[in-house]
Design brief:
Length: about 400
């Protein structure tokens, strides 16, 4: 018979609760850092989720007139076919300038006067010499007439044998000398008259007149200046004013020699002045200057306004569009040129095509009515005006109205 197992005391059946606090302390030791790490991740994730996305934008643009008809473009400056520095024809001291800058003048109008005292003295002397020459001519005529009568009388007497032949020869010689003196006196009168005309012309040169209708562009001298009618390398040393005909303005455009074959006299063109960026002015090609600038390999093409615009001035910056064909009648009407955007800026939404507009860094979705496609762009029959920034190739999953965005550097 097996031996009976000894029974454990009741104290051995009790649960030892002294190990539980130790395990809890170990779990808490790992739980607290985990919770702190989770909180840190949340704190980082929330700002990241709210960070403004970067978008690339362009401006809605208004197409230029004749953009589709443009063969090539060139830059240049406004000039006038009649532009001159007005200077006196004689040296002298300037005593009066009768015009001011910006003042219109007519051909023949007096613009300045020189000191004319010396010229008047020369004229008075020339007139006195004319009177002296005329008096000498009168005396020579009287002597010649007397010599002629004497010669006739002496010849009659010689025929009658009253006087010797030698005396007749002396009288005839004296008569010939009197005629030579008469001829000399006539020539002296002619010389004196011509000298008087020169003196009068010299006096007239002391009054400077405008050679053509124009506008005073610059005033180059004032009263008291001593002027000399000399020109050196295009700079007039004796200039009084610079006169410009504002009705004969044209643009001198520089075109590379490789593109000259695309330009013909009379070709249609459009001129855009930097001073009037929103306007285009119809023009025609005039002439091509028959010379090439070696340093730039360009030629100068004269492009003439069909109607010179009011406010255009010489030396204004300009751009010229040379057209391959004439413009349609409404080409210069802004209403006939709706604004354009890149085709990939337009996205399809539930209510139709839209664009994402960026204003003050915030997004706004605006509906548009798309018109004709031109190259990589589409016309907007309805939508935001020119100058508005729209998102190109928008990622609609990241965009929503009112969300702040960053504009990509270099875009717009």
């Amino acid at each position: 018979m097996a031996e009976a197992q000894p029974q454990k005391p009741l104290s051995a059946l009790r649960i030892d609760r002294s190990a539980a606090p130790l395990k809890r302390r170990r779990r808490l030791r790992w739980l607290v850092p985990a919770l702190l790490l989770l909180a840190l991740v949340i704190l980082i994730a929330i700002p990241l989720s709210r960070r403004a996305p970067t978008v690339r934008v362009v401006e809605v643009r208004e197409p230029l007139p004749g953009e589709q008809q443009t063969e090539l473009s060139a830059a240049g400056y406004v000039d006038s076919r009649r532009r001159s520095v007005i200077a006196p024809q004689i040296p002298g001291r300037l005593v009066d300038v009768t015009v001011e800058e910006g003042e219109p003048v007519k051909a023949g109008q007096v613009i300045a006067r020189l000191d004319d005292r010396d010229a008047r003295v020369l004229l008075e002397r020339a007139e006195a010499e004319v009177r002296a020459a005329e008096a000498g001519l009168a005396a020579a005529r009287a002597q010649a007439a007397n010599a002629q009568r004497t010669t006739l009388r002496t010849r009659n007497l010689a025929k009658q044998g009253v006087i010797p032949r030698a005396q007749l020869l002396d009288v005839e010689t004296a008569g010939s000398a009197a005629m030579e003196e008469l001829n000399a006196a006539n020539a002296q009168v002619v010389v004196a008259v011509r000298a008087r005309e020169a003196a009068r012309l010299q006096l007239s040169h002391t009054v400077v007149r405008a050679p053509f209708d124009g506008t005073v562009a610059r005033k180059l001298a004032d009263e008291g200046a001593v002027l000399a009618p000399a020109a050196l390398e295009g700079t007039n040393l004796g200039g009084i004013i610079e006169l410009v005909d504002l009705d004969a303005l044209e643009v001198e455009a520089e075109v590379s020699e490789e593109q000259l074959s695309l330009i013909q006299p009379g070709q249609h063109a459009l001129i855009f002045l930097d001073a009037f960026p929103d306007q285009a002015f119809p023009a025609r090609v005039g002439t091509v200057r028959p010379a090439i600038d070696r340093s730039k390999a360009t030629a100068t093409v004269m492009v003439r306004f069909q109607s010179v615009p009011r406010g255009a001035l010489p030396d204004m910056g300009a751009k010229v569009s040379f057209l391959r064909e004439a413009l349609p009648p409404d080409a210069l009407d802004p209403k006939a040129r709706p604004p354009r955007v890149p085709a990939d800026a337009v996205v399809q939404a539930e209510n139709g095509p839209t664009v994402w507009v960026v204003k003050d860094g915030l997004l706004d979705q605006q509906p548009v009515v798309v018109g004709q496609r031109v190259g990589e762009e589409v016309a907007l029959e309805q939508g935001p005006p020119a100058g508005t920034q729209v998102v190109v190739a928008p990622d609609v999953k990241k965009l929503r109205e009112g969300r702040r965005v960053k504009v990509e550097a270099g875009s717009g």
